[in-house]
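Per your request, structure below.
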């Protein structure tokens, strides 16, 4: 079965990253901070999934 939470996080990250590259945003912008937060959630989710 597809992991919809994982797919949603990856999709949001990809979209935000594209916008940041297009706009040339610095590291301390809200969009870049959200990408870092998503990266953390992805890592936690994958670790939890691997542990199960």
């Amino acid at each position: 079965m597809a992991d919809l939470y994982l797919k949603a996080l990856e999709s949001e990250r990809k979209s935000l990253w594209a916008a940041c590259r297009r706009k040339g945003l610095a590291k301390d912008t809200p969009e870049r901070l959200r990408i870092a937060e998503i990266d953390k959630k992805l890592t936690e989710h994958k670790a939890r999934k691997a542990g199960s």
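The chain has two helices and no strands.

Regards,
D.
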